[in-house]
Specification:
Blueprint (H helix, E strand, L loop, with lengths): L1 H19 L18 E2 L5 E5 L4 E3 L2 E3 L6 E5 L2 E5 L2 E2 L6 E6 L15 E7 L8 E7 L5 E18 L5 E4 L4 E10 L3 E6 L11 E2 L2 E4 L8 E8 L6 E17 L3 E3 L6 E10 L3 E6 L2 E2 L6 E6 L2 E6 L8 E9 L2 E10 L6 E2 L11 E9 L5 E8 L8 E6 L2 E6 L3 E6 L18 E9 L7 E10 L2 E2 L6 E4 L18 E4 L2 E4 L2 H21 L1
Parallel strand pairs: 2-11, 12-18, 19-26
Antiparallel strand pairs: 1-4, 3-9, 4-9, 5-6, 5-10, 6-7, 8-9, 10-11, 11-13, 13-16, 14-15, 14-17, 17-18, 18-20, 20-24, 21-22, 21-25, 23-24, 25-26, 27-28, 28-33, 29-32, 29-34, 30-31, 34-35, 34-36, 37-38
Amino acid sequence: MHAVFVFIVTLALLVLASDAQNYPGLTDQDILQEGKPATFVTPGQTYRIATGSTVVLPCRVTPAGAYVLAWKRGIAVLTAGPVKVTPDKRVRLLQSPVSTSSLTGIPELSGEGYSLELKDVRPQDAGDYVCQIGTMEPREITHTLEILVPPRIHYVSHSGPLEVLQGATVKMECRASGNPVPTVAWTRKNNVLPSGERSVSGLSLVIQHADRHSAGQYQCSADNGVGQPDTRHITLNVLYGPEVETERSTVHTGIGLEAQLVCIVHAEPSPQVLWFKDTAQLGTTEQHAAHARGNRYTLVIRNVTSADFGNYSCVASNSHGKGRGQLTLTGTAGLAVFDSPPLGTEKDTYNISWSVNSHAAITEYRLFYRQQPHHHHGHHQELIFNNSKMIYRNDWNSVVLPGAGVTNLQIPLPPPFPGVTRQKMWYTVRSLHPSTTYEARVQARNQHGWNKLSPIFHFTTRSNDMENMVEPSAQPAVYGISQQGMAPFSSGVREKLSSAFSLIVVLVVHLF
């Protein structure tokens, strides 16, 4: 330490001796101009600089004179006057020329001195840098250099794929360094976090009761506003037994068509999937073929026959368990769908209509209807209509209707349709009560049997009060072509045409 001090003092003396030629007879009075002591124009400041950048620390003194400026960092002398003492190649002195400007209040335009330039700053360069006037009573200013360090993740709890069993608690950790201290945030690629949030902050991410929905690629990102955020990825795999869903539990088809039974299977690791009809395992034949694409497993049945109708199952298994899906292949019609308006136009009748999808002709319908029951504990309930008392039983009325185009059930049915067709039917329900809500259900039968009852449909008859609300209007005239041109038909002809038109509408409805 003593040797270093001797070296510094000797060097300073050499510098002073070398400057003596330019400034002969240098004394303390020589650093004064008009009796004023030298003062710093540039104040000490704090500089926040990112690593790799270049910083210039200014030092200007006024009045200009023959004094020595020295830059120090701690006890180390970096420069003395115009001489650089430190061997660090990144350090350079920048001399500020003497200013003659009268704007002495602006540091950049007054005084003189040397600025210290430091290139490619590093974290270890942080600290205090002192600019000192070499007088008998030294004066100095201090610049503080704070090095901003981009974030860097230096610890990740899992470097490879993380595999856990379903139901386990998962903890992932990320630690980062930088200046300022970075914030760590967690996200999941192309998805939200299991908590439903898009991002959470913290050094760790905990997932309770992991399931298949928890799997994915998680990302921890460290950011402190300096440079680009640093990121790491952790891939989470959750191991679990097969979970099986059916795309459609009941598949409707027709003779000679192709049918597809689909099971959606989720499992990790990937499962083996086998197909069964009742208890018999199905293999790949000309008629049966099994395909898999992602989580979708399909059994294709070509050229369906009556023997193919029945119950099927897909059985998926892996090292963590087994799952099963149940499906039914049938030729019966799909559920009926009502398409008549819920509010009728008559007070005592209602024209109800529906349609069904079927690959075979519908031979028969069963319509069930009843007044919408009120929720009472008793089996009977009393209702008042037109000041007369009646007992309403909570029973369904039923009507059996032949299917369209069926005139003789002894004649063989037509061949099956080439594809699914929508077959329509209607019926006028009579002897209803005004302003009353009813409910209806319907079944349809084709050559393969009855389908399931439709969901309940509600309809309401018109109120008596609505008659007075309808404005009378003139009866429309029906025009036809006569020898004289356009002329109205007689009332008798109109009645016959109306009856014929109604018959045509009924026939068209039955055909479609």
